[in-house]
Amino acid sequence: MKVLINMPLAEQRGGGEMMLLDLIRQGRDLDVEWLVIFLEDGPMVEQVRALGVDARVVDSGRLREIHRFILSIIRIAAIARREKVDMIVNWMWITHILGGLSAFLTGKPAIWYQLEVPYDRSLLVRLSTLIPARAVVTLSKDGQKAQSQIFPYRATPLVYPGVELNRFNPANLPSQEEARQKLGLPNTGILVGIVGRLQRWKGMHVVVDAMPQVLQKYPDAHCVIVGGQHAFEPEYEDFLKDQIVALGLQEKVIMAGLQQNVPEWVQAMDIFIHASDREPFGIVIIEAMALGKAVIAGDAGGPTEIITNNVNGLLTPYGDSDALSHAILRYLDDSEFACHVGIAARERALEFSTRNYAKNFVEIINSLLQEVPRLAGSKDVASIPYFSSKSGK
User: What are the Glycosyl transferase family domain coordinates in residue numbering (predicted)?
Assistant: First the structure.
């Protein structure tokens, strides 16, 4: 089986790019020949080639550059015909506008990977759904439900992403004390942390707002924010810095910036927070759980499919700094509870391996190639394939 993947980004900016690399890395021995077309040039092109996979660049430009857009459709269709691919996979909805039309020209089946939860059903998501597709693969039940309600109705199989568990194995990392020393972090007191691109919906400001209440009881505590500026919200970094100053937390909140050695930063933390608003999934949550950390995450979207509240983590409403501070204090006030949660968290995280993710994704492709395409107006959600974090259905 030969599969062509259209990828819009060629630089790793978030979980979606890592998921593609995980699929390629773990799917090389699953009887699939992969071909990746990047719609821009960047470091990921060579990363994929280094894995022994054919990677090419078709610079599509912006959607409003119609002539380049049409030329890219023709070029991708020509490559699909020449390489005799069996399936075209479009990474993210925006790529399906281009890749789906290329598939239509060649008569090849196409699917696209919906990495968001389309709550607002934007015009572009609706446009993507209009373009023929054998299915729209989703990465959470929340996303599956939302996408399955957009007309024309497509099959919406669910495949949970995975985590490269070896990178987040405590046995393969420095101790917490060693990690703090190496990274120049405070070597005493509690360390609360959050990792993510600096965007408002990621909720870093909520974590900062929660710290004064924590510091009233634990004055030696610190907070570290690991993440770089986002191109679409460059002003948010300055907003956070101003907020830290306004609350007098300059000595207590550390803005670490973009970091590559994320496992070591998380290893240094006592409590890991994921404060996003309706996160589509939350790979970084599993990464922290794999390190046995006491985790707090939002009580909507993907995190609720990963965490069982009060068992392997705590869930709090987005934007509620009081609830977040209470959750932090619950861990700090009851170290035995925090320890039990950390043990259960690591056990849960072990179910989400990148190997299982790749096997389940390939199985979806195989099943879709073998079945008769569903009618566009059919809304038979019960027939949609489902793949859990464990291998197989």
Answer: 176-347
> What is the secondary structure of 334-386 as a DSSP string?
-HHHHHHHHHHHHHHHTT-BHHHHHHHHHHHHHHHHHSPPPPTT---GGGS-E
State the CB neighbour count (10 A cutoff) for residue 261.
14
Q: In this predicted structure, what is the pLDDT of residue 52?
A: 97
Q: Is 351 left (phi over 0), alpha (psi -120 to 50) or beta?
A: alpha
What is the value of pTM for the model shown? 0.89
- In this predicted structure, the answer to whether residue 385 has a pLDDT above a threshold of 60 is no
Average pLDDT of every residue of the chain: 93
Which residues, 6+ apart, have CB-to-CB distance to 269 below 8 Å? 191, 192, 193, 224, 288, 293
Q: Write the single-letter amino acid at 1.
A: M
Query: Domains plus CATH for the chain?
Result: 2-162+354-387 (3.40.50.2000), 165-349 (3.40.50.2000)
**Comparing C-alpha atoms, which of 115, 6, 127, 23 is closest to residue 58?**
6
Closest by CA to 262, choosing from 201, 173, 343, is 173
Q: Taking Cα atoms as reference points, which of 183, 206, 163, 195 lies closest to residue 271?
A: 195
Q: Give the mean pLDDT of 124-137.
A: 94
